[in-house]
Amino acid sequence: MTQDLPRAAAAVVTAARSLGLELHVREFPEGTRTAADAARAIGCQVDQIVKSLVFVADTDPVLVLTSGGNRVDVVKVGRERSAATVRKADAGEVRAATGYAIGGTPPFGHARDLPVLIDRHLTGFEEVWAAAGTPRHVFPIAPGDLLRATGGLVADVTLVEDGPPAG
Ligand code: 5CA
């Protein structure tokens, strides 16, 4: 029921509906601001949390949907976007590009039409969870629906963490 939701979350539900998706938003009063917070509240794996991170590629914002346990490799984002420089957007840039604050940024329904890159790791789950506009609202979504709703490109955009030296 969108009328029970704060305006920011209701706007995400409305945006989803216009994309043919009915969201089931859940509120966690203890907060879902970070991927770890969200996984703890929901009771899912941290890698099932969709981090909706804004980067600036040369001068253009790009949204990178990243699995909760992964970190974005800006060099790989630069390759995908044919950009020489990529940096993380600041709080004001996130708000300008998406219409939402950090911690509640949803994966679609943004103020501007953003290119979207999707961490391939997210596609291996039956269900993932993303922010619904506020730091305490989230919704589950099948990765296929996330791809369709965002029009995003599945890519390798994450850092490969250093493992033990090879034999
Ligand atoms: N609600 C959760 C997941 S459902 C969420 O929004 N997680 S998030 O990862 O997409 O958003 C938090 C991220 O925002 C942090 O991982 C961090 O990368 C970024 N962030 C936090 N503070 C700042 C800041 N001051 N400037 C730029 N990025 C920031």
Q: What share of the residues does DSSP label as strand, in percent?
A: 15-25%
Oligomer: single chain
CATH superfamily: YbaK/aminoacyl-tRNA synthetase-associated domain
Q: What's the main sheet like? A: 8 strands, mixed
Percent of residues in helical segments?
25-40%
Q: What's the overall average pLDDT, rounded?
A: 96
- Classify the fold: give the CATH topology: YbaK protein
Structural class: alpha/beta
How far apart the termini lie comes to: 56 Å
Number of E-state strands: 8
> What's the order of the H and E elements?
HEHEEHEHEEEHE
Radius of gyration equals 15 Å
Enumerate the spans where pLDDT stays under 50 for 5 or more consecutive residues: none
Q: In CATH, what is the class?
A: Alpha Beta
Say which molecules are bound, naming each kind only once.
5'-O-(N-(L-cysteinyl)-sulfamoyl)adenosine
Query: What number of structural domains do the residues give?
Result: 1
CATH architecture, by name, is Alpha-Beta Complex
**Per the principal axes of the C-alpha atoms, what is the gross shape?**
globular
| Helical run tally | 5
